[in-house]
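Long-time lurker. I teach an intro course on protein structure, and each term I like to show students one example going from raw sequence to a predicted 3D structure in token notation. This year I'd like something fresh instead of my usual example. Would anyone be willing to generate the tokens for the chain below so I can use it in lecture? Attribution to the forum is fine with me.
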Amino acid sequence: MPWIQIKINTTGSHAEQLAEALEETGAVSVTFQDTHDNPVYEPLPGETRLWGDTDIIGLFDAETDMATVVTMMAAHPLLGEGFHHKIEQIEDKDWEREWMDNFHPMRFGERLWICPSWRDVPDANAVNVMLDPGLAFGTGTHPTTSLCLTWLDGLDLEGKTVIDFGCGSGILAIAALKLGASRAIGIDIDPQAIQASRDNAARNGVADKLELYLPHEQPENLQADVVVANILAGPLRELAPLIRVLPVAGGELGLSGILASQAESVCEAYAQHFVLDPVAEKEEWCRITGKRHHP
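-- Reply from a regular --
Happy to contribute to a lecture. Here you go:
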């Protein structure tokens, strides 16, 4: 069915209230978009990430009288007459098919492929991880995930234990297992991510080798040969005391979810405990890797 949308520019502090007002006018969905096109990450449970300059997009049935919607929104105390907005018609498509057509098998490093279930596997002899886009973040399409997958592909994981800190969809832990790791441990604050990781591990035949924990459930003194954390620069700095003790002495650490401009500050949080490699960059994002010092 055809749709029409209204885009309203506002500030982060006003976005929630205006979103509620759009829903009251009949919007079937309301989304937030950074006016400056900053990257958007999956929010924490119960959290909505907002920005200083935010566009609110309300989606309506194309039969909706948008003049009435504009009049109702103009009466809102945060807007008023002449508020900045844009109304656009949305092309009527088979959105499910459109969405599926955008995902193709992707290769990382020398051996590893991430393949959606509805596509043919390009190389049956490769290391193939079957993963469909879902509710938890992590399908391989984002540069940060790509950087981590390529790094894992280049390691000798045979018989190793791997911790995926902030596991999301489980893509990194599952890839590590299929690349030869004997055990993987996924940790995430979101129960939805734990379920997604469990489902994806079962689909890939590695559920018996993957342990999953919410932070308060994880075993004490947990350590692994390889630790990867693809989250955000802020948490990587704040949680450094927890993350940097996870690799064993001589163990590998891989950090991503970091803009190139943030790399130096993240490196500083780990440099005392690790021999760090040169920072790897891809599309303004970067990956920090290194080995933990021996005592």
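Some talking points for your students: The longest helix spans residues 12-24. Confidence is low (pLDDT under 50) at residues 37-52.
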